[in-house]
Design goal:
- This protein is an alpha+beta fold.
- It has a single domain (about 25-195), classed as Immunoglobulin-like (Sandwich), CATH 2.60.40.
- Helices cover about 15% and strands about 35% of the residues.
- It has two helices and twelve strands, in the order H-E-E-E-E-E-E-E-E-E-E-E-E-H.
- It has helices spanning about 1-15, 200-215; strands at about 25-30, 35, 50-55, 60-65, 75-80, 95-100, 105-115, 120-125, 140, 145-150, 175-180, 185-190.
- Residues about 1-20 and about 195-215 have low confidence and may be disordered.
Amino acid sequence: MRLAAELAVAVIALGLFGVGEGSAATLTIGLDTEFSGADDPAGTSPWITATFDDSFGGANTVRLTMSANNLVDVEFIDDWLFNFDPSLDPTMLSISYVSGQSANNVNTGVNAYQADGDGKFDIEFDFPPPPGSFPGKFTTGELSVYDITYIAAIDVSSFDFQSVEGGGNGTFSSAAHILGIGPGASGGGWIGPIPEPASGLLVGAGLIVLGMRRRGR
């Protein structure tokens, strides 16, 4: 009974991390560290969050929801960058607006967009506001939702890659340029996610521990 219970826990863990075939999954990236040497945004980190969801639009489409959940006051998103599977061609992506704040431009290219010298990315959402029009800015509490479609099957893992190193402070799975920071809303800086262990490594470690416990008996 005890062994059966341990095996059940391992199976549940695999399911939680989306290891099963054919199941929809989500990938959430929280941007919670300032890496360009500027001031942090004033709110609680993660200041902004990107969620990829492959349960929309069929096997070739992933929905991206960008959230300015923890920006405050007049802080806003200027640019937001993402990576794409390096074995695939990002210029073959079709990116269509769904709802929320729309980008002025959405661009794709192989390692074409650099974040403050700290990484080269494949997808750029360009959110500069119209001159003098703060309501047009992608700011606190707002969402921006896009569907990303490829010429072949993709899923959330297709966007879970580190940027190509650009000679700066490191590589990141995403990066964004935030403006309106600090006194007089005159500051700005680049933010990205703090690297965390991959979920697959965590599951693997759990299974190894389970195997060691069995051998110890």
